[in-house]
């Protein structure tokens, strides 16, 4: 959006010969610039520890992976899982990637016109790297939920425990599972669906902080035991099946003082992981006063 200024003048010599001329001044507009920095996939990462209360291999929830702990104070889900869709699920775990880290994914300059506004967003890309848009598709992940019918009965209550990603707004992406009917239909039948939300990823449009809320327990493949508690904290990290460019990405747009805009999407997806919750059994010790006979 350049500004052209034209001056017209007439030059006359001593014996009244004259000629007309023009002077054109071209003022180039200064535009903002936003570039995605090249970073590793773990640059912007968050890990939630599923443990509620004490963790068998990490006692004291206040020293988990995300100090001062990622417990919300709410209980973990109960089994069997619900048959009807839960409109307002309650998170039992929550952790955040700070806004400074997200800002570090981009290099931005507002230019001479100064910053008018900026906005952070989330971008969901399918396995081929194509943005899905809002409510336009389900992206299959490597994660699944823990699901069983009842204590002593390991039969899954849901037909399909795989977690799929769906973009519900420019600032929110949900990880969902098909509910008791086994049909993913949150996008097409929001009023009647029984899909359940396993976790939610939300970005603050101003600060860039990304918060992950967990509602259902994530299945972990490695088995721990009291003899070897290493696998109690088995880590499952989110990825997209068939991934050649899929995942949850951050976006940033910048508008300068006279309305010019620039935007970019992060070079690498956000890294979201879930640590397993190990079993914790306290053994009560009996105390007998006096002495015993031999």
Mean pLDDT over the residues:
84
Distance between the termini: 100 Å
Helix content estimate: under 10%
- Strand percentage lies at 35-45%
| Structural classification | mainly beta
Number of helices: 1
Rg of Cα set? 28 Å
Low-confidence stretches: 54-68, 290-294
Order of helices and strands: EEEEEHEEEEEEEEEEE
Oligomer: single chain
The biggest beta sheet reads: 6 strands, antiparallel
Strand order of the largest sheet: 5-12-11-10-9-8
Strand tally: 16
Shape assignment: elongated
Describe the structure.
The chain is an all-beta fold. 2% of the residues lie in helices and 36% in strands. It has one helix and 16 strands. The strands form five sheets. The chain has a six-stranded antiparallel sheet. It has a three-stranded mixed sheet with strand order 4-16-13, with no helix packed on it. Strands 7-14-15 form a three-stranded antiparallel sheet, with no helix packed on it. It starts with a strand and ends in a 19-residue tail after the last strand. Residues 54-68 and 290-294 have low confidence and may be disordered.
